[in-house]
Design a protein that fits this description.
- By secondary structure, this protein is of the alpha/beta class.
- It has one domain: Endonuclease, Chain A.
- It contains 13 helices and 21 strands.
- It has helices at 8-38, 46-63, 95-105, 132-146, 166-172, 182-186, 212-215, 228-244, 297-307, 334-346, 364-373, 424-428, 451-463, and strands at residues 72-78, 93-94, 109-114, 117-118, 150-156, 176-180, 194-197, 201-205, 209-210, 217-225, 269-273, 276-285, 295-296, 311-316, 349-355, 383-388, 403-404, 408-411, 415-418, 432-439, 468-470.
- Strands 11, 12, 13, 14, 15, 16, 18, 19, 20 and 21 form a 10-stranded mixed sheet that branches. Strands 1, 2, 3, 5, 6, 7, 8, 10 and 17 form a 9-stranded mixed sheet that branches.
- Helix 3 (95-105) runs parallel beside helix 4 and helix 9 packs parallel to helix 10.
- It is globular and about 65 Å long.
- The two termini are 32 Å apart.
- The structure holds 2-acetamido-2-deoxy-beta-D-glucopyranose (NAG) (8 copies).
- One 2-acetamido-2-deoxy-beta-D-glucopyranose (NAG) binds next to helix 1.
- It is found in: Early endosome; Endoplasmic reticulum membrane; Golgi apparatus membrane; Lysosome.
- The chain crosses the membrane at residues 17-36.
Length: 484
């Protein structure tokens, strides 16, 4: 069952140890809690206490040589069927399995932020065995509702897959569903894709609630288990959608205090994840959905780029230094400039991998060639652009599939996992979230490498695979049909 994840065995055994340490740590929590309580309480809310609590706890933990934090981060991905990689290639946990496990773990509540739903083949008039994992997921959600776990779904007001009955099915089993009219509110869509389970576990990534995201589309995400500080912080973003999904809601000029975040770019969450010192925070877009203290998604992306000294590897579906949905389009070179600046100003190696598929707008190519042309190795400027093509093979009957939909960036310092295409609208009007995470390298102990190293390995796998094609490659047809 865990065939997709070579390191699962190691992690599972590690958990027992962590569990024991957590019990030992409980005494320490209590002590620290009182220590924090006697210091003057900060002006704001609960989370502040929590974070302070964790920080001093961490300090104590270090002194006592204890690993008391049970947060755990796992990368999860979907690979389209029939996309073979060389034997021994790195891979992440299977997303389909990770989602099913999260549902099994749930005891009280599941909050899902989603763009649209389409978990069954008949939703889009397709009869193909690759829709099974999506159908199983939908059944599992009904079972979860049957055991009294509450399920709240925030979804976009306008969305593709109008024929899908998934949400009606879940409503009939007791789920709560709110449609967020982002079009009226900000002129965008609700494009976020994340789960918060029991206020303790989270999933964030590129996958839609669509069966094709499990078997036909390339996706990347992260799951963080047992981490109430981060989960409750992401829950605040879920709550922004939830209140905006109520009838006649408007975006408040100032969000109420309890929506403010105390975990951000300037003060990331710090904890030990399986023994690795980890910093992490969530960003959000658009700015109107960023209450006080929440880092804007664009600022998160720029900060990660600025932090890089060695390399910036980016994998996105779309890359346009313009707006996409405003007419006429506006030039918007913010991210393009930042990449060039890193390459020229700091000698950072930039690799950009963009998806190319049946529906790729060919006006993307001049922008990609322009960025590639900036490269000048003799002057120490290193920029490389490739397109990733998922061979359609015998899956041509499945619409809008066979594409790499991942959206992430990795540098030698940090991993960024997001939900936005790289063009202006995704940062200014569409709602999305990003996770920025950094782990310190382990001190020679066995176990999984830091998350940014795991993500680098996945990027390198794709970058050096035969599916990644240089812009001048003779294998690149104008229509992005893979020529082998
Ligand atoms: C969360 O932590 C508890 C106690 O340490 C452990 O038993 C449980 O397996 C962890 N859950 C996950 C999903 O890692
Ligand atoms: C959605 O349903 C309508 C009416 O039943 C049908 O005409 C249309 O083809 C369906 N669309 C898809 C994508 O299945
Ligand atoms: C779906 O396809 C299978 C075999 O490919 C066939 O047995 C089944 O009848 C089909 N179902 C529908 C509803 O067309
Ligand atoms: C679910 O909750 C209802 C009402 O609170 C209760 O009657 C029922 O027994 C519960 N079912 C389970 C499986 O816990
Ligand atoms: C803040 O408080 C209001 C009123 O009690 C509540 O409706 C809302 O859900 C809370 N928001 C968050 C993020 O907890
Ligand atoms: C589709 O192609 C894959 C390999 O490319 C092959 O293994 C599989 O049997 C094919 N399926 C069908 C139904 O032709
Ligand atoms: C990103 O861009 C592609 C291509 O323009 C589009 O199909 C897709 O819906 C956009 N959004 C996301 C979330 O990928
Ligand atoms: C596709 O996703 C993988 C991660 O699973 C990533 O390494 C690759 O760069 C992505 N390619 C594109 C074109 O987005």
């Amino acid at each position: 069952m865990y065939a997709a994840c070579g390191s699962t065995q190691v992690i599972m055994t590690g958990q027992k140890v962590l569990g024991l340490l957590a019990i030992l740590g409980l005494g320490l929590v209590t002590v620290t809690y009182f220590l924090v309580r006697v210091s003057p309480p900060p002006a704001c809310c609960q989370l502040y206490h929590k974070e302070e609590n964790l920080r001093s706890w961490e300090a104590l933990g270090r002194e006592a040589q204890l690993q008391r934090d049970s947060c755990r981060l796992v990368l999860a991905e979907s690979l389209p069927k029939d996309l073979p990689y060389a034997a021994g290639s790195p891979s992440a946990q299977s997303l389909a399995l990770a989602w099913l496990q999260l549902l099994d773990t749930a005891q009280e509540s599941i909050h899902v932020a989603s763009y649209y739903w389409s978990l069954t083949g008949p939703d889009i008039g397709v009869n193909d065995s690759s829709s099974r994992p999506g159908e199983i997921l939908l059944q599992k959600m009904q079972q979860v509702l049957a055991r009294n776990v509450s399920l709240a779904v925030a979804t976009s007001g306008s969305a593709p897959a109008r024929n899908s009955t998934d949400l009606q099915v879940l409503l009939a089993h007791g789920a709560q569903v709110r449609h967020v009219p982002m079009k009226q509110l900000t002129g965008g869509v609700l494009h976020s894709k994340f789960w918060v389970v029991d206020g303790q576990h989270v999933y964030v990534g590129s996958a839609n609630m669509d069966w094709r995201s499990l078997t036909q589309v390339k996706e990347l995400g992260a799951i963080i288990y047992n981490c109430s500080s981060l989960a409750q912080d992401l829950e605040k973003t879920f709550q922004t959608y939830w209140v905006l999904g109520a009838p006649h809601a408007i975006i408040p000029k100032t969000w109420p205090r309890n929506f403010s975040s105390h975990i951000n770019r300037f003060r990331p969450f710090r904890g030990l994840f399986g023994g690795l010192l980890t910093t992490a925070y969530f960003s959000a877009s658009p700015p109107a959905l960023c209450p006080r203290g929440r880092t804007r998604d664009l600022d998160a992306v720029l900060a990660v780029m600025k932090g890089a000294q060695d390399f910036i590897y980016v994998s996105v579906m779309d890359y346009f230094p313009t707006t996409r949905f405003s007419h006429p389009a506006r030039y918007w070179p913010v991210l393009d400039n930042a990449l060039r600046e890193a390459a020229l100003g700091r000698g950072v190696h930039v690799h950009l991998l963009v998806s190319c598929w049946l529906h790729t707008d060919p006006t993307i190519f001049p922008y990609l060639r322009s960025l590639q042309a900036f490269s000048n190795p003799t002057a120490g400027i290193s920029v490389d652009v490739k397109v990733f093509i998922v061979p359609v093979g015998n899956h041509s009957s499945i619409p809008f599939s066979r594409v790499n939909h991942s959206k992430y960036m990795v540098t030698e310092r940090a991993a960024y996992i997001g939900t936005s295409n790289w063009s202006e609208d995704y940062f200014s009007s569409t709602s999305g979230v990003g996770l920025v995470v950094h782990q310190q390298a382990p001190r020679a102990q066995p176990g999984p490498p830091p998350v940014q190293e795991q993500l680098r390995q996945l990027f390198e796998r794709d970058w050096s695979s035969s599916y990644a094609v240089g812009l001048d490659g003779h294998t690149l047809g104008q229509d992005c049909v893979w020529q082998g």
